[in-house]
Specification:
Blueprint (H helix, E strand, L loop, with lengths): L1 H15 L6 E6 L3 E6 L7 H5 L6 E4 L3 E4 L4 H14 L24 H16 L17 H20 L3 H13 L3 H20 L6 H13 L1 H12 L4 H12 L7 E2 L2 E2 L6 H22 L2 H64 L5 H12 L4 H5 L1 H16 L4 H15 L4 H11 L1 H22 L4 E3 L13 E3 L3 H26 L3 H8 L38
Antiparallel strand pairs: 1-2, 2-4, 3-4, 5-6, 7-8
Keywords: Cell membrane, Kinase, Membrane, Phosphotransferase system, Sugar transport, Transferase, Transmembrane, Transmembrane helix, Transport
Protein name: PTS transporter subunit EIIC
Pfam family, one: PTS_EIIB
């Protein structure tokens, strides 16, 4: 039955993204189905967002459909199976209509709300007719539609600004690590379970096996990073893995560089990334210059030989020093100024995401996990999502009469609690302006709380990257008892929720905004005794990103 549900979800998604001919690549991370799209105009965003299984849409270098953890891993194989099936729709639903046919009703949030209202009215029966709304049907979703359009405009503009060589390079670096997240999560959870068994003294015969299972991937992660790096930068993937394998080979301990004996694993993922990137560039040069008759012999040999020598006598030492500096700096920063550092990291993380600079943190997270067994930065950064959830809850309470925005918030909150913040950011808080700022303040206080405990000696880390919010609980690890670490993380989330809620409730909306967003467009605002004539609603801020004013100066 479950398989049928996921198969039905995939079958519904395919025509809405333009059909099989419009999909060039398929992949998934922890929560998102990532699609390469040939013709963007064939994708029906509104119809996708109207599907109950779709939690949000994210457009980056790929078109990403947020389905949630667990669901996406089951829908993706069904989607891939449909792409290769002879019965797969080759084009979108819109292309199957013929001239003269009645236009198919577009599935939108407005239609969805209308259908729900009509269904409720039918259930009420003729004896209990539903009260007639004073708001015209077309107005019920005006605010949400305007916010969605405004958020899409802001996002597109920010995406264009982020298309710089440095940011595009960082995005490609992130693409190297995203496929590794499932293994990091799986091994991280097993490591946590193994720690519980070890501390409790249970199943001692099983503990060594679990240790091998949890640590095996991390001991060879450099090889996987090398493989993905070469693949991402246009080289032969297995050659990237081959040169990265030099780093973890035990015999490297017999090599001396810069007067020091090398250690297996020295340089870690940073050394593997650099080695595979060099190998990809050298391979391209050899392919251009080596005669075709000798290419199959000379190109791989020269690529592995030259890159291997550079790795052994240069890159391993250099990357090892950088990795050591990253670990030392992280420990010093949180040990001496944890509260302030956490406040800044939690508060500035979402602006970093908008600027595209958060991609640079992924190799840092992975390096810390490889060195210490967990990254102390991720739980702090996860507080940014808590601030967004708190802000959304405050808007839900404040805008009691705006059914459209409340519907958007209700649909996006489950994903927000699981750490997927884009639907709330681009659908609600960012277009409104101030709520995005107050959400960042909530994230800052949550990060400061977790950072303070790091400063006091209670380190809170994560054994994997990717999850956030509630989804991070199974991966939480620290230097004290697991119960203490989980409690600190949970309290940090609560602080983020509370401050994000309070800040947004009291300061997130101006009086005029509350009046405009809560009142029907056709209901004139009454004048109280002694009150001057009410000014006309300021509609210039709705649907006009430029009118957001100073709130976003410096963000992008």
């Amino acid at each position: 039955m479950t398989a049928d549900k996921h198969r039905a979800t995939a079958a519904t998604l395919l025509p809405l993204v333009g059909g099989a001919d419009n999909v060039t690549s398929v992949a998934h991370c922890m929560t998102r189905l990532r699609l390469g799209i040939r013709d963007r105009s064939l994708v029906q965003d509104a119809a996708l967002m109207a599907l109950p299984s779709v939690l949000g849409l994210v457009e980056d270098d790929t078109y990403q459909i947020v389905l949630g953890p667990g669901t996406v891993a089951r829908v993706t194989p069904e989607f891939e199976r449909l792409l290769t099936s002879p019965d797969a729709p080759a084009t979108s639903l819109a292309d199957t209509q013929h001239p003269g046919d009645a236009p198919q009703e577009q599935i939108t949030l407005r239609n969805r709300c209308r259908n729900k209202e009509e269904g409720s009215a039918r259930q009420a029966g003729p004896q209990n007719p539903a009260p007639q709304s004073t708001t015209p049907p077309t107005e019920i979703t005006t605010a949400a539609a305007d916010l969605a359009a405004q958020g899409a405009t802001l996002k597109a503009r920010q995406k264009a600004r982020n298309a710089t060589p440095v940011k595009l390079f960082l995005r490609r670096v992130a693409n190297i690590f995203v496929p590794l997240i499932p293994a990091l999560i799986g091994c991280g959870v097993i490591a946590g379970l193994n720690g519980l068994l070890t501390n409790a003294g249970w199943l001692p015969a099983l503990v060594p096996a679990l240790t091998a299972i949890a640590s095996g991937f991390m001991s060879l992660i450099a090889v996987f990073v090398g493989y993905n790096t070469a693949k991402e930068f246009g080289g032969t993937p297995v050659l990237g893995g081959a040169v990265a394998a030099v780093i973890v080979f035990p015999g490297i301990a017999n090599v001396t560089a810069f007067g020091q004996k090398l250690a297996p694993g020295q340089g870690g993922v940073l050394g593997a990334l650099a080695a595979a990137l060099l190998a990809a560039q050298l391979e391209k040069q050899f392919r251009r210059r080596v005669p075709e008759a000798l290419d199959v012999l000379l190109t791989p040999t020269l690529t592995v030989l030259l890159t291997g020598l550079v790795t052994a006598f240069g890159l391993m030492y250099a990357a090892g020093e950088v990795s050591l500096a990253i670990g030392t700096a992280s420990n010093w920063l949180l040990g001496h100024g944890g509260a302030l550092a956490g406040f800044l990291l939690g508060g500035l993380f979402l602006p970093l995401v908008m600027l595209g600079l958060h991609q640079a943190l992924i190799p840092i997270h992975t390096t810390l996990i490889q060195q210490q067994g967990y990254t102390t930065l991720l739980p702090i950064l996860a507080m940014a999502g808590a601030g967004q959830v708190g802000a959304a809850l405050a808007l839900y309470v404040r805008l009691r009469r705006n059914h459209s925005i409340r519907t958007t918030i209700r649909s996006a909150l489950p994903a927000g609690f699981l750490g997927v913040g884009e639907p709330l950011i681009y659908g609600v808080s960012l277009p409104l302006g101030r709520p995005f700022i107050t959400a960042c303040v909530g994230g800052a206080f949550g990060g400061g709380f977790v950072g303070l405990f790091n400063q006091l000696g209670d380190a809170v880390g994560s054994t994997a990257i990717g999850p956030s919010g509630f989804a991070l609980f199974p991966l939480v690890k620290g230097n004290h008892a697991l119960g203490t670490t989980i409690t600190v993380y949970a309290l940090g989330l609560l602080v983020g929720y509370a401050v994000g809620f309070a800040g947004t409730y009291f300061f997130g909306l101006s009086r005029q905004q509350r009046a405009d967003l809560n009142a029907p467009h056709d209901a004139p605002r009454t004048r109280g005794e002694g009150e001057a004539d009410a000014p006309a609603p300021d509609t210039s801020r709705v649907g006009n990103p430029e009118a957001l004013g100073p709130a976003f100066e410096g963000v992008g």
